[in-house]
C-alpha cells in the first residue's frame, strides 16, 4: 500500500497574532467558543469517516499532523475523538509520527498525558521568541516563562520528540536578541527547531501597519545575517540543517513535513486544509481551490519543493517518477541556470542537484527557473 500523511486543521486559537495569515478564529467568548468547537469536531469526525471510505483501502498512514490555529485549545476529549476517528477509518502504522501544534498558554499536564495516551508522539511548541517585549509586539498570548514551564511539563509527561518554532527578522529585533533566543532554546535541548523569517501577510495587523507606514521591515542584510548565524550555531550544537527553515537532531527530521518537500501525497481534512492526492491539489472551504496537475506542474513542483531540502533533488528519482531525464526536460533552461552554477549558488554532483547555503538567499530566483 502507498504511504499517506494526514493533516487535520483546527481553526481556533486564543487570539490572532499580528502576523498570522493562516485560517483561524480567535475564541474570546468562552460559552460560544465551546459550542463552536464541539460542532466543528463533530463535523470533522464526519469528514474523517467520509475520507476513510474513499482512501482506507489504498493507503497506509505513516504521519498525522494536527495543526491550526491552535489545536491544543480544544478539550482533551476532542483530540481523543479525532484520533479515535482516524484510527477507526484509516490504516495507521504502529510507528506513525503523530504531531500536534501548541501554544504554551493552552497546555496542562492532563492534556499532555492524554495526548500521549492517544499515540501523539511529537509536540510542536510555538515559542517564536524568548524576549517578552517581542512576544507582546507579535501579539502572542504567552510569555517566556509560559514556554519554559510548558517545555518542562511536556518532558515530564513523556514527550521525547519536541519541536520549537522560532521567528526572526521581526521589526525592531536586534541580532543580539535573536542570538539570545536561539541560545536559550538550545539550552532546552529540543529534538527539532524551526526558524522562520517574518513574512508580512495580507489581511493581518502587520500588513495594515506596513501599508500605512507604521511598520518598517528589517533590513534584508540583517535578516540574512540572523539566518546564517542561526544555521552555524545550530550545527555546532549538533543539529542537522535539513531544510531551508528546519534543523533537527539526527533521526528527528519531521517526517510529515518532508512529504510536502518530497512530492509525496498528503490528505488535508478540515477548514482550509490542503491536499495533494493522485496529482490533484485541493484546498477545502472557505479557501477552496482545485487544480489538476499536468506534466509540467508535476515536474516543476518536484524540483521547486525538493530544492528546499538541503540534500536537494535526485535526478534519478526525477526520471523514475516522470519517465524522462531531468536535463532533457529542462534543456532549454540550462543556459539561464548556468549563472547560478557559476556563482556557486546551485550545485550539481553526480545524481544530485542542490542549493548551497548562499544559494538559499536567492532560492526563489533559482526555483523559478524550473517552474
From TrEMBL:
Residue ranges crossing the lipid bilayer per the database entry: none
One of the record's GO cellular component terms: cytoplasm
Compartments (UniProt record): Cytoplasm
Keywords: 4Fe-4S, Chaperone, Cytoplasm, Heme, Iron, Iron-sulfur, Metal-binding, S-adenosyl-L-methionine
Keyword Transport annotated: no
GO biological process: porphyrin-containing compound biosynthetic process
GO molecular function: 4 iron, 4 sulfur cluster binding; coproporphyrinogen oxidase activity; metal ion binding
CDD domains the UniProt entry points to: Radical_SAM
Record-annotated Radical SAM core domain positions: 1-233
Pfam families according to UniProt: HemN_C (PF06969), Radical_SAM (PF04055)
Top-rank lineage group of the source organism: Bacteria
PANTHER family referenced in this protein's UniProt entry, alphabetically: COPROPORPHYRINIGEN III OXIDASE (PTHR13932), RADICAL S-ADENOSYL METHIONINE DOMAIN-CONTAINING PROTEIN 1, MITOCHONDRIAL (PTHR13932:SF5)
NCBIfam families, sorted: hemN_rel
Described function: Probably acts as a heme chaperone, transferring heme to an unknown acceptor. Binds one molecule of heme per monomer, possibly covalently. Binds 1 [4Fe-4S] cluster. The cluster is coordinated with 3 cysteines and an exchangeable S-adenosyl-L-methionine.
Protein family per UniProt: Belongs to the anaerobic coproporphyrinogen-III oxidase family. HemW subfamily.
UniProt name for this protein: Heme chaperone HemW
